[in-house]
Amino acid sequence: MKDYSYDKRKYILSGVVILVFITYVVQLFSLQINSEDYKTKADSNAFYKKTVYPARGLMYDRNGKMLVYNQPSYDITFVPREIKDVDTLELCEALDITTDEFNERMARVKNRKLNPGYSTYTEQDFMTLLSGEEFARFQEKMFRFPGFYVRKRSIRQYNYDVAGVLLGDVGEVSQKAIDNDPYYRRGDYIGLQGLEASYEKALRGKKGTEVLLRDARGRLQGKYQGGDLDTAAVRGKDITLSLDVELQQLGERLMQGKIGSIVAIEPATGEILCMVSAPSYDPSLLAGRQRGKNHKTLAQDKSKPLLNRAIMGTYPPGSTFKTSQAAVFLEEGIITPHTSFPCTGGFVFNKFRLGCHPHSSPISLAPAIATSCNAYFCWGLHRMFSSNRYSGTKEAMNRWRDYMVSMGFGYKLGVDLPGEVRGMIPNAEYYSRHYGNYWRAVTVISISIGQGEVALTPLQIANLGATIANRGSYITPHMVKKIEGDTISSEFTTPKRTMVSPGVYEEIIRGMRLAVTDGTCHAANIPGLDVCGKTGTAQNKGKDHSAFLGFAPRNNPKIAVAVYVENGGFGATFGVPIGALLIEKYINGKLSEESEEKAKNIQNRSIYYGNEER
Amino acid sequence: MALAVMGWLAICGASHSYIETSFLDFFSQDERSGKQALWIGISLIAGLILLCIKKHTYQNLSALIYIAAIAVGILTIFIAKDIKGSHSWISIGPFSIQPAEFMKFATTLMLASYIGRREFNINDTRELVKCIAIIMLPMIVIVAQNETGSALVYLSLFIVLYREGMTGIFLLMGISAVVYFVVGIKFNEVMFDELPLATGPYAVTVLIQIFSAAMVKFWGKNNRTFLVIALVNITGTLASYWIAVYLVEFNIMITQYLLLAFNVIYMLLQIRLRKEGRNLWIAVYILGSILFYNSCDYVMHNVLEPHQKVRIEVLLGLKEDLSGAGYNVHQSKIAIGSGGLTGKGFLNGTQTKLKYVPEQDTDFIFCTIGEEQGFIGSTFVLFVFILFILRLIMLAERQNDVFGRAYGYSLASIFFFHFAINIGMVIGFVPVIGIPLPFFSYGGSSFLGFSILLFTFLRIDADRDHLRR
After folding, report:
1. Average per-residue pLDDT for chain A
2. Is residue A31 in a domain?
3. Distance between alpha carbon A28 and the CA centroid of its chain, in Å?
4. Which of A7, A9, A47 sits opposite B162 (nearest CB)?
5. Per-residue pLDDT tens digits for A215-242
6. Which B-chain residues 387-446 have CB contacts (< 8 A) with chain A?
7. Are A385 and A526 in the same domain?
C-alpha cells in the first residue's frame, strides 16, 4: 500500500539540493577565480617579506684615508595586529623611554596623515637607530613583547669632524622620493645632502629580500621554498673622493670664526682638493638618533652652516676677476701686454670717477695686475666697448659675455654636489631692460673689476684659477675620483677650452707672479713654490670681502686656490695668508714652523658678523 | 548499489586521510590524523556489524535505542567536562565521545519507525505533534548541553515530514521567517531617501502582502479573492507611497498595516461566505508574520547571546569585525580564494598550514580543499556530495515501505543540512554554526555517527524486498 500522493515532492526536494549546489559553486567561482583580492591577502597573511639592507658604500679621501664608514644600529618595529598583552611599562623600561613617549610614538604611527602607509598588518617603525648597547638591553626582554621586531641597519660614522656639508647626510626617505622611485619603501634611508645624495645610486647598493612564512600568531616558520625566492642584498659601492682630508682640516681650521669659503682644485684634473664652507659642522652630528635635534639647531643657525657657500653662495669676485678681463682684452686685441693706461687715483671719465689706490702711473698690464689697478681695467673695458670692431656697445657686451661663459661663469659648472647655483654674468639685454638703450661702457664699468652685476661662486673663482694655471682649459671640478667597479662621468675627464689662447694666459700669469713677488700678494711669496696670485677686495654693503685667487707652482701647477672671507677687509688681510698656507700645506705636505704660527694666528682671528641673518 | 556507496565512502575516507596528512608536518597534528584513521577503522567494523542486523530488528528496537540515547544524552549533561562551555563530551580512555552524534541515529530510527507504522496519518494533528515531539526532545537535550549548532540539525528532519505529507505551510513559514528576519534586520537602520522611515519594516510589510497574495493564488480555490486582494494591495501601497512622497508626508506604515488588516478581515469574511477553510491559515499567516517580525528586534537584542548576535550582524554585512566574530569566515574566504583554479597543490596551502583559519581540521576543513585543490577540486567535492545526497533521495524513493523511505529521507536531510550549513559557513553564506562536514571533518564521534546512519540504511535498502516475499 503505497501512498503516491506526495511523490512529486521528491522533485521539489531534489531541486532545492541542486539549487544549493549551484549557488555554492557560483560562490566558489567568485571567490577563487573571479577575485585576485583573496590571493594577495593570503600572501600578505602568510609571507613576511623581510628586507635585507645592504651596507652603504664607504668613502675614502684621495690618499686612501677612510672618511665615512658604517656602524650597526637597530630599529625597533612592530606589527600592530600582532601585539598582545604587552606590558607597556616593561617595554618602556627596556627601551629607556617614558610612557608618555611611548604613547606619543604610538599615536604618531597610527596617525594616517603623518604615516599614510599605516596598516595593522605590516611592520611599523616604533623607534629607530638604537645603538648596540641600547639594543642589547631590549633584546634580553624581547621575547616578552610579541609583535615587536628588530631590523638591523647601519648608521654612518665619520673618522674626521670635517667636510660635513660635502659628505652630506643620510636620513629617512621622504614620501616624494618614494613616489619618484619605486625602489624606496617607507622607512628606508636615502642620501639627503652632499655626496650622499649625488652618489646615492652607487652608495646605496641593492636591497635584498627574504621570503619567510609566518603563521597566524605572527611566528616565523622558516623560509618559503627553502629560500629560492630570496634575493641577496648587494653592498653599496665604495667611492674615493678627490678631497685631501688634511687640507680640508687645515682649511676649516683657518676659517674658524669667519664666514666664507675656500676651494682648492688640482688644475690638471679638475679634482677638488678641498672645499670649505665656513662656518662648518661635524658630520657626525647628522647621524644617529640625535639627527633630528641637531639638524634643527643647524638649520636655525643664522650663519647657515648647512649652506655650502662654495657652490651656493654668490659673491662679487672683486679684483680676482681682473685676470679674466685681461684675458678678454688681450685676446680681442684691445690691448697688448705693453699697453699702458694712466691712473691718477682712479678712473675718471667726464664726471664719473672710480677710485684706485696709489701706485706709479701710467701703468702696463703686468704691474696693473700686480698692484690691482682699477683704472687699467676700466679703461680696457671702455676701450673695448667703444671699439669699432663691434657694431656697438651691445655687441661688445655680448662678446664679453661669451668670453665669461667660456670660462665657466654665469652657468652651473656641473660639480657633483647638489644645489650648485649659476652666479650672474650680465648681457646686453639685461642692461637694456634696466637702462633702456642709453647705456655705455661707463654705465657698466664696474663689471671690469668684478663688482656690479657680476656674481660668482667661490668654486667658479677657483675654477678661474685652475683655468689660468692650465693656460686656458679646465675640467669640470668634481669631488669623486673613483667609484668602485664603475667609471666616473666623462664630464669629469674631458677638458673644456676657453675662447682665450694659451699665450694670453702667460701674460696674465706674469702679472700674477709679479703680484706675489712685488705686489699685493707679497705674503704668499713662499720660497721655492713659485706661487702666482691675485688679491680681491670686493666692495659690498658692509665691510669689504677679502678674496684671493692663486695657484702654484707657476709651471705644471699642482693646486689652484680661491679664498673668500666675508667682510674680511683687504684681500691681503685674510685671503692671501690663508691661500698661501693651503698651497704650502698641499705642495710641501706640511707647514713650516713659522707658517704654523701664522695659521694659529689666523685661526684665532674671528670676524664679528652681528646678529643678522646671512 | 551498496558497492557504489561503499566506493564513494572509500573515496571519501581516502580523500579524508589524504587531507588529514597535510598536517603531518606539524607536531601535534600527527596524532590527529592517526586517530582519525583509527576511527575510520572502527567505523568500518561497526558498519559491517550493523550490516548483519536485519531491518525489522532496527524497526523493533527503535524505541529502545531512542530512549537509551536520550538517557545517555541527559546523563552527559551532568558528567561531561566543560569544554569551551559545552557539556557534550564523555571521555573514555584516550578518546572523547560526543553522544549527540549517536542521538541523531536514534532519533532518525525512531522517527522513521513511528512514521512507518501502518496506522500513521500525518494529517492527524495529534500524530504530527508526536512526530515533532520525537524531533524536539533530543534537540532540547542537546541545547541543554550547550551545543546549539548540533541541535539545529534536527530541524532538517522536518523535511522528512514534508515528504511524508505534512502540509508545506510549515516549511513556507520557516522560509518566510528567515526572509523577514534577514530583510528586517538588515535594512532596519537604512532610511528611505524621501521619507523619514526605515526601509526594513516597510519592505517586510510589502513582502507579507506579496506572500499572502501568492498563497491565495495557489491554494485558494477562488480566483476572485486573489484579484480583489491583489488589486486592493497594489493600489493601496502605491497610492499611499505616492501621496506620502509628493503630497502630504505621513507615516505610510499606517496604510501598510491597514491594508494587511483588510486582507485578514477579507479572508475571514471569505471563510464565512464561501467556506474556504484554507483562508483561515492565510489570515493566521499574515497575523503571525506581523507578530514575528515585530518580535525579531526584541529577539535580536534581548534573547540572542551577544556572540550569536554579532555573528548574524557580520553575516548580514552590518558589521565588519575581521579580528573578532568575522575572523573565521574572513580567513576561510581568504584561504579558499587564494586557491585559484587549480589550487596550490597538496600540502602547499600556506593559509591552512600556517593556521590562519581556526578549526581548519574540523568545521573549516573545506578551506584546506579549497586552498590546496583549488576551484576544480572543491567543486568536485561539492559535486560528489550532491550526487551522494541525490542518490540517497533516489534510494529512499525506491523503498517499498514508509519506514525505509522515511529513514532514507532522514539520512538525506541530515547529510544535506550538514553539507549546506558547513560549506555555506565556510564560504560566507550562513552564520558560523559549529557543525562538521560529514566524513571530512576531524572527529571520531561524528564519523562513527554518520557511518552508523549510512550502514544501517544500506542494510535497510538490502532488505527492501522482504515485505513482498
Report:
1. 82
2. no
3. 59
4. A9
5. 655 566 666 666 666 777 788 888 888 9
6. 389-390, 393, 397, 400, 402, 412, 416, 420, 423-424, 427-429
7. yes
